[in-house]
Every structure is written in C-alpha cells, then in structure tokens.
Amino acid sequence: MPAPTYKNYIPRNAITLVEELLDDKSIRIVLKTERKTKHGDYKRLSKHQHQISINTNLNPYRFLITFIHEVAHFEAFQKYGYGIKPHGKEWKSVFQHMMLPFLRPDIFPKALLPILAQHFKNPKASSDSDMKLAITLKQYDNANEKVYVFEIPEGDRFKLYNGKVFVKGKKRRKRIECQELGTQRLYLFNPIAEVEHLTA
Q1: CB atoms within 10 A of CB 124
Q2: What's the order of all strands across the beta sheet hosting 157-159?
Q3: CATH number of the domain at 6-138, please?
Q4: Contact, 152 vs 163, CB < 8 A?
Q5: Which is nearest to 80 in space by CA: 64, 68, 92, 69?
Q6: What residues contact residue 187 under an 8 Å CB cut-off, 6+ apart?
Q7: What is the distance between the alpha carbons of residues 128 and 135, in angstroms, rounded to a whole number?
Q8: By CB atoms within 10 Å of each CB, which of 18, 43, 104, 162 scores lowest?
Q9: H/E element holding 170?
Q10: CATH class assigned to 147-198
Q11: Where are the domains of the chain?
C-alpha cells in the first residue's frame, strides 16, 4: 500500500489546482504528526531546495489553507527575495492570489466561504489568529473533548496537553490571564487555545 501524500488530506476537488500550483517548484513536502505549536512550516534547505511540512491531524479545509500558506512563503521569497518579513505585505499579497482559485463551493463548505473571503482581505500569520475563522474551522475537526479557553467560566480549571493545570482569570485586551496551579505564575492565553476543561 503506497504511503499517504498531501493528496490524502485535502478536499478531492482541490487536488488538480494544487498540482498546478506546485508545478515546476522544487518543494519537498513532509507530513508530520500533530505539533502543538504550529500547523505547518516552510524551510529553505539550500539555494535550490525547499521544504514545507504540514500536520496530518488537521481537517481537510485547515490542511489546505495551511498548505497554501506555506507554499506562499516559498513563492513570496522567490519573487521578492529573502529580505522581506515572513508575514508582511508581500506574503499577504501572494497568499491572497494563490488562495483565490480555491474559494469555491465544490472545495470549501458554503458556510465557510464568506468567512474565508473576509479573512483573505487581510490574511493573518495564522488562521488561529482569526477567531471567527478558527471557530468555524473547528466544526469540521474530528470530535474530541477539547474546548476553547474563552468557553470556560472564569475561576474554572483546565489542563494543557503537557499536563499543566491552570485557573482561568480575567480577560485583558486580546488575551486571557490564567494562573498555573503548580507555580502560581500568571500566563496570557489566546482565547482560542484548545484545552481540557476540568469540571470536577
């Protein structure tokens, strides 16, 4: 049985478009198991070798968005040089241009399309930075026990993937202040960080 490729993880109707996008690009594609701190990344291995890696635990729509996000890094650096900011205006322009052909109802669910259209007016460094998009994308994940930090009542406890337990505190401007029980140290959490709610 052949090993899985990126084609196993994206919507079927996007495969031809992705193949056209990758044509003549010297990009090595690496599939990774879940990484807690990122969905994917781009690396320049040498002058003529490049690599993108994508987590395979992503749902097909998040996988496709992440995939194009990383290819856009390659394209932006090729077009504008390596002096540009990784998520600056050049990358945003390339990412917008590359995603446009994919924003179709035979690739993405109709409920997701207007949210994607709004997001790509000014794409962020991570889809997780767009709260509305992240929440909508989560609906297409496999069922799990995780919830977002913003959904937990203030004063309740929650646990991270590494076993550390926190108490949810007050919301600041964009982050939520939480105290780790083990050390009593305060940390600022992204409201849409996925955690395990401890109800007992």
Answers
A1: 13
A2: 147-148, 194-198, 157-159, 165-171, 176-180, 186-189
A3: 3.30.2010
A4: no
A5: 92
A6: 166, 177, 178, 179, 180
A7: 9
A8: 162
A9: strand 165-171
A10: mainly beta
A11: 6-138, 147-198
Token pair recorded at residue 36:
């807690």
Tokens describing residue 130? 């767009």
Question: Which residues, in sequence order, are bridge partners of residue 50?
Answer: 27, 44
Token digits of residue 135: 């929440």
CB 22 within 8 A of CB 50: no
Taking alpha carbons only, the member of 55, 119, 123, 118 closest to residue 95 is 123
State pLDDT tens for residues 91-122.
999 999 999 999 999 999 999 999 999 999 99
pLDDT in tens, 7-55: 999 999 999 999 999 987 889 999 998 777 789 999 998 878 899 999 9
Read off the pLDDT band of 200 (50, 70, 90).
Answer: low
Q: Which of 49, 47, 8 is nearest to 31 (CA)?
A: 8
Unique residue bearing structure tokens 């600041």: 172
Whole-prediction pTM: 0.85
* Percentage of the residues of the chain whose pLDDT score is greater than 70: 99
